[in-house]
Amino acid sequence: MKKIWAVLSVGALVLAVGAIALASGTAVTKPTRIHVIELPKTDVVIDTGESGDTSGDLLTFHNKLLDTSRKDAGTDQGQCVRIDPGAGTWECEWTNSLADGQISVAGPFNDNHGTVLTVTGGTGAYKNARGSMALRFRDNGNFDFIFSLIP
Fold first, then answer.
1. Strands 130-137 and 101-110, bridge-based pairing
2. Which of 70, 75, 84, 102 is the most exposed place for a label (fewest CB within 10 A)?
3. Could you tell me if 141 and 40 are in contact, meaning their C-beta atoms sit under 8 angstroms apart?
4. 69/51 Cα distance (integer angstroms)
5. Separation CA 43–CA 130 (nearest Å)
6. How many Å apart are CA 43 and CA 115, to the nearest integer?
């Protein structure tokens, strides 16, 4: 009888692990490139310490995203903490909400040049997404966000 219970317990454990693995499956099934343009209209810097641009200041935003045809593609929202004013560096994290789901990113932003951030996850079509997002300056003050997602 003990042997039967042991076999049944192992079988239940295998089924549970299989169900968890299936439920957490990646929705991104092939390498995917997504290019959107951010319109940074709501950016606000909150002075948290000494007056002026100092370490620890907070940048918050919630902006519109367009596709490369200039059609509405979604929104973003997030925050950055000023790290080194002299170097122009911030450390950021935000969520990009697109029609098929969300893509979250984290990493550096620099006042003077583009950077690459890490994709930290996603929802919907981007469930369990990973990869990177290149952030590039545009001449008109907007930003290119180019996601390179891998399954």
1. unpaired
2. 70
3. yes
4. 41
5. 26
6. 18
CA separation, residue 74 to residues 6, 38, 39, 88, 116 (Å): 52, 9, 11, 28, 20
Sort strands 32-39 and 58-67 into parallel, antiparallel or unpaired. antiparallel
Answer whether 0.90 is exceeded by the pTM. no
Residue 25, pLDDT above cutoff 80: no
How far is Cα 22 from Cα 68, in angstroms, rounded to an integer? 34
What string of H, E and C letters represents the secondary structure of the chain?
CHHHHHHHHHHHHHHHHHHHHHHCCCCCCCCEEEEEEEECCCCEEECCCCCCCCCCCEEEEEEEEEECCCCEEEEEEEEEEEEECCCCEEEEEEEEEECCEEEEEEEEEECCCCEEEEEEEECHHHCCCEEEEEEEECCCCCEEEEEEEEC
CA dist 7 → 13, 20, 122 (Å): 10, 20, 37
Q: How far apart are the first and last CA of the chain?
A: 45
Amino acid of residue 102: Q
Q: Find where tokens 């979604």 sit.
A: 74
Question: In this structure, are residues 144 and 151 in contact, taking their beta carbons and an 8 Å threshold?
Answer: no
